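Hi R.,

Here's the chain you asked about this morning:
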Amino acid sequence: MWSVRESEHVRDDWPTSPPPPWPATVRATLWWHRAAPAASAFGPGGRTIPVTLAMMVDYLDSPVGPYREILASPVLRAPSRLVGALPAMAVPFIAVDSAPSVHGGREHWSLPKVLADFEGDVTGTGAAAGDGWRVETTAHPFGPRLPIVGALGFAQPLPDGSLGNARAWLRGRFRVARVRVGATGPTLGDWMLPGVHPGIVIESGVMRTGPARVARR
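And here is the predicted structure, written out as tokens:
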């Protein structure tokens, strides 16, 4: 499965999870920055946009119960016939604190989920850590609470060269934020840049992640 070293694992006895769609109630912090020069080496190849997008998510409920998650796309896939009309994430790094969620990510969406430990609040000061890596975030939201309605696309590379495309639809309320980030790990230090980045804090939201559809070249 396509991943960076932080998302590699040897375990294969994950508890099973129900198939999508997965509805959930969420809180989250998202941030982005111009991709580091090394980021393309950890991206999916092909036409990309040099923007790194990352997020910390607190799933208050889901088909596998509550859990927390961190994920990031080193670069974004450019719109294309296979990807669709909008840019999409390609996620080689994703970690959660729920074993059934690991199964769901790997089985249903080709997302290379691994287990991690989480601290604090994903919309304030928090951290996630796994085998040899750690990400720390502090979000400073400001301004009014605004409505948000939209979708995030995922386009994961599959072993046969096709793509697993999926969409996560979200509606809720958010505030603009500045997000201070620190990251260490075998690859994270090369492409998840430290410092203060623009972002948003989703203070309340309802999300629905649909099934992956295979797009062949």
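One quick note: The first helix runs from residue 99 to 109.

Cheers,
M.
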